[in-house]
Amino acid sequence: MVKIAVVGVKENLGREILGFLSENDVSVDNVIALEPKSPLGTLVSYGEDEDLDVFNLDDFDFSKADVVLFACTEEVAKRYLPKATSKGVKIVDCSGATSTDVDVPMIVAGLNDEMVKEAKKNVVSVPMAVVTQILKPLSKVNEKYPLKRIVLSGYLSTSFHSREAMDELFSQTRKIYMNAPLTDDEEIFKKQIAFNVLPQVGDFIGEETKAEWAVNAEIKKVLSGNMKVHANLAYVPAFIGAGLFANVETAVDVDIDDVKSLMGQTQGVVVFDKQTDGGYVSLNDVQGENDIYISRLRQDLSSQNGFSFWAVADNLRADSARNAIEVMKLLIAE
């Protein structure tokens, strides 16, 4: 049986990946949990009844694993990826550390699976959650109606940042209800996140943020195309999930009913779109769900060949962990 190592099991994504492995009936004996500077005796839950010993990443011999999923921060991945690649193991990078490496293909499972053959270093990467969330529903659409332009407005929960960001939202919300000052409780975000919307995801790079730049670059890398992309991203006061409005322009005339049908045929995508009060899926509805949900699909009359839609998903499960596991299976089979 394949030995699977997961780096970053104390992070939000790492825990979800362990959950998916357990749900896929991967034996606890075939999973290795890793974390930087992990003290002896540290445990992490695996499924409902099992625990895994968490090994110190600094001392780990990567030759003991067949495949490694880096579900850690970009900084940690950059530090340990060379050590892992030197042992010849297969690697799925979920951290963004290899996103700009031309020798590392970026894959959204079900969209560009064939790119796994281009993994010259035995390394493949997966895009950030919002890129998977927007491209997976468009995978079959793009085959029939080639994408020309995407304008994306994304509303991201605090889990997109970190566990500490989620804690900050909880703490601020509690203090507001208790009429306590927030002076010492604005460390992750530079402004109050509770009951607020912050139009900054990542540090600024010129006029856009790092995350907005990454959306542009990663969509183009996954699709291997020169389509135009513009992203606007904001943090909202939610713990889990991401909601995206997308305006899409295609190179040919597009039929909106056909688009709905193609999205509905896509594995991992559910279309729930009723023109009635509450006939759509919201952020609160998708926590713990494995699929991406589509609502508000309609023609964009401001564009010659355009349409728009609303996509929501659990960013940790549907967008990231599920894609990482599916990509890992492609890499193992190669």
Rg result: 20 Å
Ranges with pLDDT <50 over ≥5 residues? none
- Placed side by side, the strands forming the largest sheet appear as 3-4-2-1-5-6-7
Q: Terminal Cα separation, in Å?
A: 16 Å
Shape: globular
Q: Tell me how many strands there are.
A: 15
The level-1 CATH class of the largest domain: Alpha Beta
Total tally of structural domains = 2
Largest sheet: 7 strands, mixed
Q: What would you give as the CATH superfamily of the largest domain?
A: Dihydrodipicolinate Reductase, domain 2
What would the CATH topology of the largest domain be?
Answer: Dihydrodipicolinate Reductase, domain 2
Strand content: 15-25%
Average pLDDT level: 94
Helical percent range?
A: 25-40%
Features of this protein?
Rossmann fold, alpha/beta, 24% strand, 334 residues, 28% helix, Dihydrodipicolinate Reductase, domain 2, 8 helices, 15 strands, six-stranded mixed beta sheet, 2 domains
Description of the structure:
By secondary structure, this protein is an alpha/beta fold. The protein has two domains: 4-127 and 321-333, NAD(P)-binding Rossmann-like Domain (Rossmann fold, 3-Layer(aba) Sandwich), CATH 3.40.50; 132-315, 2-Layer Sandwich (Dihydrodipicolinate Reductase, domain 2). It has eight helices and 15 strands.
Quick recap of the structure?
The chain has 8 helices and 15 strands.
Helices and strands in order:
Elements lengths: L3 E4 L4 H12 L7 E5 L7 E4 L3 E7 L10 E4 L3 H12 L4 E4 L29 E3 L3 H7 L3 H6 L2 E10 L6 H15 L26 E2 L2 E2 H14 L4 E8 L6 E9 L5 H9 L4 E3 L20 E8 L6 E8 L1 H19 L1
Helix pairs in contact: 1-8, 3-8
